[in-house]
Specification:
five-stranded mixed β-barrel, 18 helices, about 15% strand, elongated
């Protein structure tokens, strides 16, 4: 039974090249992925690259103790993301931290005051009547005009069937659009059936014959509006007063792949008039996913009044636009007066229905935010901090290498090579994790990487000291390496587990930049285990076969004389008593 076990052990010891090949292949694959992705440097945090970091803390309103929940927080993050991106900010970050905090990181070159105003206020949701709409941008001329048949009529009961974000029929000409806007504004807050001009009157009337200055300004803004421009979409309608008409863009392209622009009447229903909204799947008909809305008592009366007026009109003036932060997220058509509750349907996917329901709910959420902290770092200061962090890391690494060379001599080659592999893996993973999960290297994260140098070096020291202990017992190097490894492995795993556990707890219970330190510490601790198991141990096994190390050269770090090794234990025969020849 002993012979096969010995054979298996010898076979395992003779193939350390497999582990080395495996980790080298992994490094090559990760490096190739880094260059293929185009992200060859780690993403820098605000404190290193410069910019503004805003921490917002959610707070409950009176009477709503459970408003702070995961769904509401994620909805707030989505809306804030659109707001910040609407400012033209490149690579801005909006993410939740903990259960009630939202962190907004805005890189340098952005108006931080404007960004703070955008992300810190509650979403503005309104229902506005559609006065006119048409496709916008260069793509509109090459795209077939959607017809009125693409909009479904309202079904029986309290339902409104949604056209897609821009399926309403555009007016026939710019002149007709101008008369529609003018007549609608003169008629009152909502267009009526009588306000729609006939084809003969619109053909003979001058577009500027009897238009007041406010209407003329609105017409000019509508004519010049190009919703294919991201900056224009963000600004159109963003600062409009609820009591005044405005122009707006669709939040997304319509079903034909073009952007839609609108002239909208004054707001008739606000988001705060919605009691609740949700996405449900209609199993009784072929409608599929739809969005349900329940209104407050006051909101129900307002909604009944506006839908009753809209139902008398033709396309597109029988539509109401759901406007969030100045952009139209949906424009369902209406065929009858609705009150109390309503349903919006029309070829929704599950994701589209849930997104629209969340947007509708957010306007009525009893959830507001307060600024917990605002940190602004200039690019120059960020560069200085990065430079100082790199210098600190280089000094720490140099001291560790110097100690290893002086104390372990030849063994320091293994330790330095292992540190190099660990540093390479850490760098590549940080570069890849930036675009993958939004990881940003900040100053605390740099500190975590510096601390990790000591953790990694500690694992080598444990292994080397176990090998030296075996040599002191009189064993040769190759058996000493194999006998030392199980004992060193247990110690390394326990030590790294404690470090990883501390990093995990720190990551969970903290918010802000401290999480960067915890994440980096946990990542490098895991990499330490990988490097020791798949690189350090196999490399030590290979070098133990070399004469320089196997014979204990004085510069190898394994000289038996310097280590005070005991002589090999050998069995000796006991001397027998002398035999008396005479007695014999």
């Amino acid at each position: 039974m002993a012979a096969p076990k010995k054979g298996r052990s010898a076979s395992a010891q003779s193939r350390p090249g497999r582990s080395l090949a495996l980790i080298l292949i992994a490094i090559a694959a990760l490096t190739g992925g880094m260059f293929a992705s185009g992200h060859t440097t780690p993403r820098l945090g605000i404190d290193l690259a410069g910019g503004t970091s805003i921490t917002l803390t959610a707070k409950n309103e009176p009477g709503q103790p459970n408003a702070i929940n995961k769904t509401n927080m994620n909805t707030a993050v989505d809306i804030m993301n659109r707001r910040v991106n609407g400012l033209g900010v490149s690579e801005a970050e909006v993410q939740t931290q903990g259960s009630d905090n939202i962190i907004v990181n805005i890189p340098k070159g952005t108006n931080s005051e404007q960004a703070r105003k955008q992300v810190g206020t509650t979403a503005k949701l309104y229902f506005r009547p559609v006065l006119a709409t048409e496709a916008s941008g260069a793509e509109a001329s090459a795209t077939p005009t959607p017809s009125a048949s693409s909009s479904s009529s309202a079904t029986s009961g309290d339902k409104a069937t949604s056209s897609s974000s821009s399926s309403a029929t555009p007016s026939a000409s710019a002149t007709t659009q101008g008369r529609v806007v003018s007549d609608a504004l003169k008629a009152g807050s909502s267009p009526s059936a009588s306000s729609t001009p006939s084809s003969s009157s619109s053909a003979n009337a001058s577009p500027s014959a009897s238009v007041d200055p406010a209407t003329a300004k609105l017409q000019a803004a509508y004519a010049a509006l190009d919703c294919s421009d991201k900056a224009v979409r963000a600004k159109a309608g963003a600062d409009a007063k609820p009591t005044e008409p405005t122009v707006a863009c669709g939040q997304d392209k319509n079903s034909s792949g073009v952007w839609q622009k609108y002239v909208l009447g004054p707001a008739e229903v606000a988001g705060t008039d919605i009691k609740k909204a949700g996405a449900v799947f209609d199993t009784q008909s072929a409608a599929g996913w739809k969005v349900t809305m329940d209104f407050t008592s006051g909101g129900s009366k307002k909604f009944a009044a506006i839908t009753g007026k809209l139902a008398q009109n033709q396309q597109p003036q029988n539509q109401f636009a759901i406007v969030l932060d100045g952009q139209v997220v949906s424009d369902p058509s209406v065929a009858q007066s609705l009150s109390g509750s309503a349903e919006i349907s029309g070829s929704f996917t599950q994701t589209e229905a849930q997104d629209l329901a969340n947007m509708l709910k957010y306007g009525a959420l009893p959830l507001s935010f307060k600024e917990s902290s605002v940190t602004t770092v200039t690019a120059a200061l960020g560069g200085e901090q990065l430079h100082a962090g790199l210098i600190a890391g280089a000094i720490g690494l140099a001291l560790v290498v110097l100690y290893l060379v002086i104390y372990y001599r030849g063994l320091s080659v293994i330790a330095i090579a292992s540190l190099g592999v660990s540093a390479m893996l850490t760098y590549v993973l940080m570069a890849l994790l930036g675009p993958a999960i939004g990881f940003a290297l900040n100053l605390p994260a740099v500190c975590g990487a510096i601390v990790a140098i000591g953790i990694t070096a500690d694992s080598f020291i444990v292994f080397f000291e176990r090998i030296r202990d075996e040599i002191r017992e009189g064993r040769t190097l190759r058996p000493a390496v194999e006998r030392a490894w199980p004992r060193a492995r247990r110690t390394i795993l326990v030590s790294d587990f404690v470090s990883f556990l501390a990093a995990a707890v720190l990551f969970i219970v903290t918010v802000g930049k401290v999480q960067g330190f915890a994440f980096t510490l946990g990542l490098t601790t895991v990499l330490d285990v990988v490097v020791v198991f798949f690189f350090t141990k196999p490399l030590m096994t290979l070098l133990a076969r070399r004469k320089f190390f196997a014979e204990g050269h004085r510069w190898s770090g394994l000289d038996p004389k310097r280590l005070g090794a005991k002589p090999p234990l050998r069995r000796t025969r006991r001397a027998s008593a002398p035999v008396d020849t005479k007695e014999a």
